[in-house]
Amino acid sequence: MFKLFFYTGLYLQVLVVFLLTYFLTAGAAYWLLYINKKERLRGRKIQDREAKKQAIYREIKCSVISMLVLALFSLPVVICYQNGYTVLYSTIMPRGWIYFFGSIVICILINDTYFYWLHRFMHLKAVFPLVHKTHHLSKTPTPWAIYSFSPVETFIDFAIFPLLIFFVPLHIVAIGIVIGYNHFMNLGGHFGFEFVPVKWHRHWLFRYGLSVTHHDMHHSKVNCNYGLYFNIWDRLMRTNHRDYEATLQKMEDKIKNQKIHAYANDQRKNSCSEIHQ
Ligand SMILES: [Zn+2]
Ligand SMILES: [Zn+2]
Predict the structure, then answer these.
(1) Domains of the chain by residue range
(2) What is residue 93's three-state secondary structure?
(3) How far away, in angstroms, is 15 Cα from ligand 1 center?
(4) What is the pLDDT of residues 90-140, one digit of tens each?
């Protein structure tokens, strides 16, 4: 009986951390982009279509269900860590700083590769309706969509983290950074507004990074743009949407035009206030 109370308490603690992280970060992003700075950022909005209220409620509902699943499946990992059954460690030495930073980079690359191929698998005709359809109900995603998955997808998307925790010796802070990076990249991919400098897609190295437009197009066009952190696998496997570069070019023009428009407006306001003085 005591154990049941203990595990229920632990589950609730983990759940609260997940829910707080979700509502604070997705809520802050939504408030900034869709309410507070909406007019100012109009030129950066990727789709002309607005997300419907019902779609946002669905994204929140599905994300909360995902948190319930995620907390349940994190519980054995937390218990194993507390009892010393994982390969996580807590002192930098003797592995040192190079290993610390190197392990973060390697884990991010592993996560990117895992997700790309899992994502391709989830887009197979027979698998898609059973596993991945829920995420694609959002044609115009908002930050609330970051955990809008079916329970099965939640489980397999995040299964990479226990695998890393049990099989790759990682500093406790390093795995925290890898999980935090996943959360913020996931959030960024669902902004609906482009913030990555668009001209980077012409740079020899930065073109292997992802723009917000990349994942946004995945939602609006579906069978393309599968990457999570980098545009490496999509380039290698030729799965970028054929209009990806052209869409980025359009975004670049749109952002420039909006800046010119905003500057002209400011000038007009200044000259009006001078006249009134
Ligand atoms: Zn997908
Ligand atoms: Zn998405």
Answers:
(1) 2-250
(2) coil
(3) 26
(4) 999 889 999 999 999 999 999 999 999 999 999 999 999 999 999 999 999
